């Protein structure tokens, strides 16, 4: 099976088949599709279409699909069902982490109602446990389903025990080894279990050099750890090392991606995690605050220029390079800060101190500055034929590039030191400050040149 | 074991212990550290320190560490060794995909020399196969090591066969099922094998509804597929469906991360994949081209303003809002394009057509534009006391916001349609065009207002 691609034609054909309840046609159309593909279809359907379409799936399939839906589509479908239906058709058939995620999206009242209708007591208690963790921590990411064996068992006991445990667990990632107090001791791979004689003990074959995370660790940190150590699954323990659950990589890929995308959004002046499919209102709310910063910066810039209105009257040609100076200051600052922000996000800044980083930025800025200033000097000199203007523009450009590069480097580092998200500094804030300071430098130098 | 954090103190203590060859101290310091931690240490050492430190590891550990090193550190260490040492100490002990990645970094001559020294013929032929694929495709990402069984075997034969195959393979992700022509038929999980009676056949228990990728599929596409379907491992097949290898999620996390980061870098005006630890020269090369675009844009902006120099002489107060108009045009354009670029990268744009997207952007732009224009009108009216200027600035701001939002939306969509990376459009390009057009609008409106 290669990847499925949803088209308008496919959607129309399917909706028609669903509407006339042509089961064989519907099953033919969705043959071989995965839950994620079906979810993509449902995301594009109206509520009526989606509910009619949902009839064609078994309870387990329906639960798998529900998890893959966009939050909006999931909410619409769940709102059309009673708490009892939600509990029995969906939540009882889900892994504990997915179930907790779905419940976390509901109101407290609805959540409690749904939990009270769960038939599987173990599932209900797992979910209640999971709901007690903050969403953006290891505890909020983990699932309770896992295979575990006692360090003192022999292989035969283990395999029998795993046969029992496997009724509740779909996918085996690894088998955890605990002592009689449930304290995590290590792991043993299924392969190892499969290939070791029955009478050996777990104690003899388990691997005790493993990485675990505590339940209160932030999700980004979990992402960094799994990425760094190439882990597919990581066990979660409490403060005294008792095994609580496990986190699999697919949940963490989302976190890693969102983290990288969040930095980009912030640098572009977009707060909150919005997508192009969100409402006009949400999109506006995510963007307007940053534009206020820009507007405020523009007004401050206007005041700077206003101070030199007298110079401008005498030398109106100075106005024509205002946008160039402002734009270059912004561009250089964003470049510098983007590199620092990504370095911080990746832990790839190394052990270099602040001063050696600034020294390097100074080097880059000097090369860029000299090249670009020479070009603009040449242009001004030949096309504007004014030595004063040429000198003003080129000296101002060089100064502005150096200032913007250093400022763009130092601000995210400082924010990070004081535990503020360094990505906040990039984009509108750095651009605006650099704009204003660049204009100030430009007119100051112009003032000196034209004396 | 919790995560390791490298400090200057630790590094000094370790280097001292390595220098005086104090084995027990070195082993005590690195006790419980993973390969990725050791690699982090070596990345910060000089070549001499690294080579002395490397003596403390077994061949297998040494190979594991080599893979985790930064490209620069790896290159330095490999350059200090002969081809034979590289082959026998490192390449023979690596998984085929890692081995191919390391070899791909060498010159053709060195690569062939190393391959000629490999003792394991199977390893050598796997590596040669892998080197024939482009680095950024599924073939370039995959490893050849995998467990496979014939669809006609019974469980007992399978388990025996897996015992043999497992000598070469460290980690079992899944067991692939092929027919007698090596054409991929499906998968069977180790858990299933473990729990099924010996006399049953693979045919009866395997799962044929699986996702595979062709060897020539781009790495980003592999990342999207594994992310969408929550896969930990995906099989790679050739054009007629024969099983070639498998790709694991840890290799793809890198691709997913780099993809998200690349968009951010491009939007910030940084080409190539640079890090803050790269050389001044590399950093400059990645940044200067985008600054040229900015400079060129600034010159065009200067020409636009130059055309209205006469107006400026009569109304020098118009100059003071030049940076505001230019900055807002840039900010709005970047916001719009960032949302489209991320939507394209995530396949989350849905089935909406171009027109409905533009309509939505128009809605957002109208709200933002009306709010911000009213504010600036108020400011101008009270502080600059000129109706003509107040009207010019506020009308120009509204027009510029609408234009920039639509332009920022349409450009990445168009680029994507013509198979150009849409992230190229964001940052300097969109900012620059919006700057120039914004200035043009501002002076045009000013010209009409002051008539």
UniProtKB/TrEMBL annotation, chains A, B:
<keyword id="KW-0129">CBS domain</keyword>
<keyword id="KW-0479">Metal-binding</keyword>
<feature type="transmembrane region" description="Helical">
    <location>
        <begin position="395"/>
        <end position="415"/>
    </location>
</feature>
<comment type="similarity">
    <text>Belongs to the SLC41A transporter family.</text>
</comment>
<keyword id="KW-0460">Magnesium</keyword>
<dbReference type="InterPro" id="IPR000644">
    <property type="entry name" value="CBS_dom"/>
</dbReference>
<dbReference type="GO" id="GO:0015095">
    <property type="term" value="F:magnesium ion transmembrane transporter activity"/>
</dbReference>
<keyword id="KW-0813">Transport</keyword>
<keyword id="KW-1133">Transmembrane helix</keyword>
<dbReference type="InterPro" id="IPR036739">
    <property type="entry name" value="SLC41_membr_dom_sf"/>
</dbReference>
<comment type="function">
    <text>Acts as a magnesium transporter.</text>
</comment>
<dbReference type="InterPro" id="IPR046342">
    <property type="entry name" value="CBS_dom_sf"/>
</dbReference>
<keyword id="KW-1003">Cell membrane</keyword>
<feature type="transmembrane region" description="Helical">
    <location>
        <begin position="288"/>
        <end position="306"/>
    </location>
</feature>
<dbReference type="Pfam" id="PF03448">
    <property type="entry name" value="MgtE_N"/>
</dbReference>
<keyword id="KW-0472">Membrane</keyword>
<dbReference type="GO" id="GO:0005886">
    <property type="term" value="C:plasma membrane"/>
</dbReference>
<keyword id="KW-0812">Transmembrane</keyword>
<feature type="transmembrane region" description="Helical">
    <location>
        <begin position="318"/>
        <end position="342"/>
    </location>
</feature>
<feature type="transmembrane region" description="Helical">
    <location>
        <begin position="362"/>
        <end position="383"/>
    </location>
</feature>
<feature type="transmembrane region" description="Helical">
    <location>
        <begin position="427"/>
        <end position="450"/>
    </location>
</feature>
<dbReference type="InterPro" id="IPR038076">
    <property type="entry name" value="MgtE_N_sf"/>
</dbReference>
<dbReference type="GO" id="GO:0046872">
    <property type="term" value="F:metal ion binding"/>
</dbReference>
<comment type="subunit">
    <text>Homodimer.</text>
</comment>
<dbReference type="InterPro" id="IPR006667">
    <property type="entry name" value="SLC41_membr_dom"/>
</dbReference>
<dbReference type="InterPro" id="IPR006669">
    <property type="entry name" value="MgtE_transporter"/>
</dbReference>
<dbReference type="Pfam" id="PF01769">
    <property type="entry name" value="MgtE"/>
</dbReference>
<protein>
    <recommendedName>
        <fullName>Magnesium transporter MgtE</fullName>
    </recommendedName>
</protein>
<feature type="domain" description="CBS">
    <location>
        <begin position="206"/>
        <end position="262"/>
    </location>
</feature>
<dbReference type="InterPro" id="IPR006668">
    <property type="entry name" value="Mg_transptr_MgtE_intracell_dom"/>
</dbReference>
<feature type="domain" description="CBS">
    <location>
        <begin position="142"/>
        <end position="205"/>
    </location>
</feature>
<dbReference type="Pfam" id="PF00571">
    <property type="entry name" value="CBS"/>
</dbReference>
